[in-house]
Amino acid sequence: MMVAVRLWKPTDIDYVSSSVEKADWRHTKRDVERCWRFEPNGCFIAEINHKPVGHVFSVNYGKVGWIGLLIVNEEHRQKGIGALLMQTAMNYLRNVGCETIQLEAAEKAIPLYKRLGFVEEFSSLRFKKQLKKDEVFRFSVQSKTVGMRDEDVEATARFDSKFFGANRFRVLHSLYKDYPQLCFVEKERNHIVGYIMGRKITQAYQIGPWVCARENPQATKELFFVCLSAIGSSEIEVRIGVPAPNEMATKLMDKLGFKQVGKSTRMVWGKPRHEGDISGIFGIGGAEKG
């Protein structure tokens, strides 16, 4: 069996979209296209006899890289294809200067990542809630939460980098362009002290990234409530990924009636720690991109 690995092409979007749909990852075709736009040179397809049998996505945030969307067709698993795709993505990220590589691992994939040198950091919890029709989320009339504007995105990326550990302007800008009505910032004296983004996924809405200074719990909640209110009054499912070490976030999920429906494990390769502050991350952007 000869396995070849090549870059994604635009014509591969349908294959990758179908693959993640079968895995029930809730990504839309638009989500997959967005990943490809982030880093076209970091997206790889595995082929056997010129037919795709697996894929992976990686994105370069400078010193920090991220890997996601690793799936191998079911009939071709346990043949080393996943490891080959991972090694290709890791080599790419190292070659563009990444010193730390992170990912979110499903339990069954942890042994593979450990063999490649990744170590576990913490659990990443998945929550969901079915919003009720006309459910009201109350926020202060003095709320400083406002809709994100074009000129806010660069400042938001700088603020975010203090918590995420790297500047992910490309990702935030792309999410904002696709869903401006679900993106909000909290400002004090014209400085951003928190932000939140939402997007439509398959039969639900996804919240995240959601980042706010821990010492400002009122702003944290108001960002969340404003975003939920913007989603609308129809009965719809809302999903969010929360870093388990952020106890303020997990307690808020419980208080608001969100139920934990799964988890993954944050794993890291390379430098075991990078600059960042997980205590201010209340919602991740997505398992595929951090």
Set down the secondary structure blueprint.
Layout: E1 3-7, H1 13-22, H2 29-38, E2 43-48, E3 51-60, E4 64-72, H3 81-95, E5 100-105, H4 110-115, E6 119-130, E7 145-147, H5 153-164, H6 169-178, E8 183-188, E9 191-201, E10 204-212, H7 217-231, E11 237-243, H8 247-255, E12 259-270, E13 281-283
Parallel strand pairs: 4-5, 10-11
Antiparallel strand pairs: 1-2, 2-3, 3-4, 5-12, 6-11, 6-12, 7-8, 8-9, 9-10, 10-13
What does this structure look like?
This protein is an alpha+beta fold and 290 residues long. It has two domains: 3-98, Aminopeptidase (3-Layer(aba) Sandwich), CATH 3.40.630.30; 126-283, Aminopeptidase (3-Layer(aba) Sandwich), CATH 3.40.630. Helix content is 30%, strand content 34%. The protein has helices at 13-22, 29-38, 81-95, 110-115, 153-164, 169-178, 217-231, 247-255; strands at 3-7, 43-48, 51-60, 64-72, 100-105, 119-130, 145-147, 183-188, 191-201, 204-212, 237-243, 259-270, 281-283. Helix 1 (13-22) crosses helix 2 and helix 5 (153-164) packs across helix 6. The radius of gyration is 19 Å and the shape is globular. The model has no long low-confidence stretch (mean pLDDT 94).
